[in-house]
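Practice problem 4.
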């Protein structure tokens, strides 16, 4: 069953008190009778709109039931949600959802049962200005005579505008069989193969840009080292590489501080915070890390790490840590990792803060992993946590030039039941394309909030603070600092809400609510 659903204007005031200041588009937690399970993917259309693919269903205790996908279209010009399409599917409908590289319009590609005990590939087309899909125009291609497991599927469009499809079936002895196929956008099957057992459950799939018509996949081993496999155009393995999880190790003679070690915490896929990007002859990896020391001066921290390796030798060329919360921590989730056409990188990650106030950060790095700018998203008093699902991509203007990054995600409400979908748009300068000075994107983070005595501030390296002021709700100035701007003294103030104004050297200022306990 397919039908077009009309969206009404979404009332931000039902979610946030000061909606008119919010840059973030937030779809309410439930769309007629369905719970949001995850964001499967999102992309920018030729007309500039962002379309997201949202997995929805109904909750039945510990057994949620998938009902289908809702495709939302959002304009970043004022963040208006303009259209939606619900596609009912009782299976887990994971799709490739992308701009059609052969012309105008868009593609939806998915693997499904063919109705005769086998597996088929469905290619759907729809225009930029209308999300409605006409099933009569779909291409349906038979792939194999056994049924695929829908939740392991991988899709990509390569540089030749062919679809590369990876899917799994089960043999008579119960083992898994990994199939991979090259299919033209016109439905022509150009090549099929079955991968060896040792290449089963390779997680991601992409094209390796310095080796024409070659592809790479990766997985973590039992020891949590990262294995990268390079495949040729017929999907035969050409080479494999190992990235050791250990980042730093030193043994000290001092018995009170005997050992210090930091290591990657590789996950099993992107949803578990591991990303791999090819860049020329290099591989760039982003993943959480742990830093431990042993014995008396025991110390532990978690954070995000980005490392660049020369693929041929696996020699590490650069390493960057991000950690704003030393000490025991619940860990960091890396949500997105993107590369620009000029080789810069965007890293998006979630980190815990005191009082269970998670913050999402967007960092732009150069090829040597130097920070160009950093922006902190999600003002923490909202108590929304973007830890469940997120998708990002390069933001382009009407001529196709890269102007920044978009982020579409799914967040849970930490204060009450409910969740929702958000959109952020950041330019290459780290500014909101909607409105500067909004309360969701900042060149600094502040925590803990609420606080009893002192508020800590951390600034992006591309900005310089000039002054921090604190006002009560009647507009009276109660604190002012022009030095020591990494913290704000709250001692001696009456408990309650205050407004903190941060002014930068370039004259820009931001106002945030803070709470004194």
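Answer key:
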């Amino acid at each position: 069953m397919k039908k077009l659903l009309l969206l009404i204007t979404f009332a931000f005031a039902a979610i946030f008190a000061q909606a008119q200041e919010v840059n973030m588009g937030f779809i309410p937690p439930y769309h007629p009778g369905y719970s949001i399970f995850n964001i499967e993917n999102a992309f920018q259309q030729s007309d500039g709109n962002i379309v997201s693919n949202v997995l929805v269903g109904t909750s039945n205790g510990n057994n949620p039931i998938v009902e289908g996908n809702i495709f939302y279209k959002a304009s970043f010009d004022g963040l208006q949600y303009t259209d939606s399409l619900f596609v009912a599917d009782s299976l887990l409908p994971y799709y490739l959802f992308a701009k059609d590289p052969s012309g105008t319009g868009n593609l939806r590609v998915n693997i499904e049962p063919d109705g005769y005990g086998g597996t088929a590939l469905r290619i759907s087309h729809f225009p930029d200005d209308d999300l409605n899909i006409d099933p009569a125009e779909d291409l349906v291609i038979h792939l194999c005579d056994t049924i695929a497991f829908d939740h392991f599927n991988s899709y990509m469009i390569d540089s030749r505008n062919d679809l590369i499809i990876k899917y799994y079936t089960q043999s008579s002895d119960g083992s898994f069989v990994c199939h991979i196929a090259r299919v033209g956008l016109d439905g022509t099957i150009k090549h099929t193969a079955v991968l060896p057992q040792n290449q089963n459950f390779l997680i991601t799939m992409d094209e390796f840009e310095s080796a024409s018509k070659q592809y790479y996949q990766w997985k973590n081993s039992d020891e949590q080292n990262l294995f990268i496999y390079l495949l040729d155009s017929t999907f035969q393995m050409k080479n494999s590489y190992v990235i050791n999880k250990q980042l730093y190790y030193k043994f000290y003679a001092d018995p009170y501080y005997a050992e210090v070690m930091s290591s990657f915490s590789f996950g099993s896929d992107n949803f578990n915070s591991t990303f791999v990007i090819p860049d020329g002859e290099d591989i760039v990896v982003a993943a959480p890390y742990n830093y431990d020391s042993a014995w008396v001066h025991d110390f532990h921290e978690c954070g995000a790490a980005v490392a660049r390796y020369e693929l041929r030798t696996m020699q590490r060329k650069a390493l960057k840590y991000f950690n704003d919360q030393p000490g025991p921590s619940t860990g960091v989730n890396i949500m997105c990792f993107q590369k620009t056409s000029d080789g810069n990188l965007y890293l998006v990650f979630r980190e815990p803060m005191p009082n269970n106030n998670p913050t999402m950060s967007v960092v732009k790095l150069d090829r040597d992993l130097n920070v160009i700018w950093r922006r902190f998203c999600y003002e923490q008093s909202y108590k929304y946590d973007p830890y469940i699902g997120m998708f990002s991509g390069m933001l382009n203007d009407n001529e196709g030039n890269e102007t920044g990054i978009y982020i579409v995600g799914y967040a849970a409400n930490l204060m009450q039941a409910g969740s929702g979908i958000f959109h952020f748009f950041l330019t290459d300068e780290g500014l909101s394309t909607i409105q500067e000075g909004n309360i969701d994107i900042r060149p600094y983070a502040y925590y803990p909030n609420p606080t009893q005595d002192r508020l800590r501030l951390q600034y992006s390296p591309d900005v310089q603070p000039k002054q921090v002021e604190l006002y009560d709700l009647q507009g009276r100035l109660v604190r002012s600092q022009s030095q020591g701007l990494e913290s704000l003294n709250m001692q001696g103030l009456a408990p309650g809400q205050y407004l903190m104004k941060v002014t930068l050297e370039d004259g820009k200022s931001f106002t945030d609510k803070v709470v004194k306990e």
